[in-house]
């Protein structure tokens, strides 16, 4: 979607070689940046203990914005070295059976290419970090399941409002599809999914419904997992769900609208709501939500209904309690999410 325009903007900056732009990192960076999982209780993803052998390549640059913002991501992957990559592009894979080298004499020491999952942190679109303790654990968990996990940072409110964040995560997917990256990490560019929680859940779902057609091109993804996302950002939807003043205020700040205005005065609310863009070409979506948490359950229920009406396969899990986002990602839900991702990404 908007990532194409952003890519063009970046190219324009590079072309202006006579100008020396000062780069700046997204603030706040680092492991101590707050998680959207409140408190210190051992819940959700905090019940996961990473195994040995997970490699983390941190702070890789995936883009520079026109304002000089440096965009970075972390890649978590198994330690197994990749000596050659068996993607359909370089092997004679018809999609009907095991890939076979297209030419005689091709490398025989070939590691199978791996599916990738882009991990998108939460934090009300205004805080959070890919490397805080909880989201680093998500990254390692996905890697332990056999995925190349790609945990991204994106621009935050108030420095950037919609559509900056979705443009950034879309650019990260495009970056992953560069030959250099899938050769470097052993990624199959046809099998990229998205995982997000809270505000990151909104972005993951929006990434999944943006665009049309093939799921292996541009910024399209082949599967989506979103947990506790505020996904219906229109005033009428928020009113119907009994959304709190707090939730309405952070959504207004993200959209760049005055709190309390109607949808005619804030048309970007529809653009930032995933169901607005849904069609039958979109990937399967897993939605997880707690019964009684800070984002009303009605948000996820409505998204599930709207996606199904558009012809999108949906798995919807409602869990007891009031934990939020990756705070609900306990062992039982991790099993379900991993099974969903393996089913649709391989």
TrEMBL record:
<dbReference type="InterPro" id="IPR049492">
    <property type="entry name" value="BD-FAE-like_dom"/>
</dbReference>
<keyword id="KW-0378">Hydrolase</keyword>
<feature type="region of interest" description="Disordered">
    <location>
        <begin position="265"/>
        <end position="285"/>
    </location>
</feature>
<dbReference type="InterPro" id="IPR050300">
    <property type="entry name" value="GDXG_lipolytic_enzyme"/>
</dbReference>
<feature type="domain" description="BD-FAE-like">
    <location>
        <begin position="113"/>
        <end position="307"/>
    </location>
</feature>
<dbReference type="GO" id="GO:0016787">
    <property type="term" value="F:hydrolase activity"/>
</dbReference>
<dbReference type="Pfam" id="PF20434">
    <property type="entry name" value="BD-FAE"/>
</dbReference>
<dbReference type="InterPro" id="IPR029058">
    <property type="entry name" value="AB_hydrolase_fold"/>
</dbReference>
<protein>
    <submittedName>
        <fullName>Alpha/beta hydrolase</fullName>
    </submittedName>
</protein>
């Amino acid at each position: 979607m908007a990532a194409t325009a952003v890519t063009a903007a970046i190219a324009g900056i590079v072309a202006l070689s006579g100008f020396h732009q000062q780069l700046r990192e997204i603030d706040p960076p680092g492991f101590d940046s707050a998680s959207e999982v409140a408190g210190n209780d051992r819940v959700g993803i905090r019940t996961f203990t990473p195994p040995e052998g997970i490699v983390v390549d941190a702070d890789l640059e995936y883009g520079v914005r026109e304002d000089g913002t440096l965009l970075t991501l972390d890649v978590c992957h198994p330690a197994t070295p990749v000596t050659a990559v068996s993607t359909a592009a370089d092997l004679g894979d018809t999609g009907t059976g095991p890939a076979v080298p297209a030419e005689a004499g091709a490398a025989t020491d070939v590691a199978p290419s791996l599916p990738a999952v882009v991990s998108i942190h939460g934090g009300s679109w205004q805080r959070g970090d890919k490397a805080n303790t909880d989201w680093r654990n998500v990254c390692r968990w996905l890697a332990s399941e056999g995925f190349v996990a790609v945990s991204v940072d994106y621009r935050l409110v108030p420095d950037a409002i919609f559509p900056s964040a979705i443009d950034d995560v879309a650019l990260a997917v495009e970056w992953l599809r560069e030959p250099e990256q899938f050769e470097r990490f052993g990624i199959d560019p046809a099998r990229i999914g998205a995982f997000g929680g809270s505000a990151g859940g909104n972005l993951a779902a929006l990434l999944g419904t943006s665009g049309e057609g093939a799921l292996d091109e541009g910024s399209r993804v082949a599967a989506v997992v979103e947990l506790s996302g505020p996904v219906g950002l229109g005033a009428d939807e928020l009113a119907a769900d009994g959304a709190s003043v707090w939730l309405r205020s952070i959504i207004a700040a993200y959209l760049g609208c005055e709190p309390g205005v109607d949808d005619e005065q804030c048309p970007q609310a529809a653009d930032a709501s995933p169901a607005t863009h849904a069609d039958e070409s979109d990937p399967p979506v897993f939605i997880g939500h707690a019964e009684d948490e800070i984002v009303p359950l009605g948000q996820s229920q409505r998204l599930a209904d709207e996606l199904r009406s558009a012809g999108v396969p949906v798995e919807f899990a409602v869990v007891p309690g009031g934990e939020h986002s990756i705070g609900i990602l306990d062992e039982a839900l991790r099993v379900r999410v991993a099974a969903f991702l393996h089913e649709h990404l391989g």
